[in-house]
Amino acid sequence: MTLPERVLQVTNxxxxxxxxxxxxxxxxxxxxxxxxxxxxxxxxxxxHVFTIGRGGSRExxxxxxxxxxxxxxxxxxxxxxxxxxxxxxxxxxxxxxLDLKEHGKDVHRAIHMYEEALIGVLAEFxxxxxxxxxxxxxxxxxxxxxxxxxxxxxxxxFHGFAFNIxxxxxxxxxxxxxxxxxxxxxxxxxxxxRPVTPAEVKPRVAQHFAWIFSLTLLENTGPVSPQGRTPAxxxxxxxxxxxxxxxxxxxxxxxxxxxxxxxxxFPRG
Length: 269
Prior knowledge:
By secondary structure, the protein is an alpha+beta fold. The protein has helices at 18-33, 65-71, 107-124, 188-192, 198-212, and strands spanning 7-15, 39-45, 49-52, 74-77, 84-87, 91-97, 130-132, 135-140, 143-153, 156-164, 216-217, 219-220, 236-237. The protein is built from 5 helices and 13 strands. It has an 8-stranded mixed β-sheet with strand order 7-8-9-10-6-2-1-11, sandwiched between helices. Helix 3 crosses helix 5. The longest helix has 18 residues, at 107-124.
């Protein structure tokens, strides 16, 4: 079987603390720079945490240390662009680790493509996502549904996006989200007026990122070769089961179990 040369490896980290996920990012960024792994997308839900980017201010954190402790919220000052934001259960946080030397060496274009991928996901739910020329991110009827803030190291991206599926939106009232005072925050569940879970949305996020960056999603059943180039017998196989990514696969599924690296290829439609 002839396999494509350009692939996107997607890893579902499940529910993981911010510090642990950040350490994983740093390790994988170094490996991507060294050409040991292909472009990678980490998807995770964090426990309650506020992160403050390089352009942020603790003045935009509106609650006391006592409230943070009572709510179990951690705070990190980190090396991405942007201001303060919230991560927590019910939100898909995505960390694309992409070598922009293979994608035009244009940071602004990369952010635009992140937005386009998430707008495509929203469209699958019948929701019209929009950009605001003043701010990065994705908006629905003037409310932010996805925040974007990235870092770059030797043209490899890290950090990424936070996509609100069904988080508790009251946590955004404890901050000035992204330092923007005149824009509300919303979620996919709030827009649809019905329950929706990250598990329903994660496979679509993975697929749209692959489409936008002209990459192929593959199931990893063995070692990853440099640059994602995968000769026959390397352990990479196409995976076409839609229920296999991040969910409980059906009997006889080739794609493993929940939280393993299983990468389906969905048809457009």
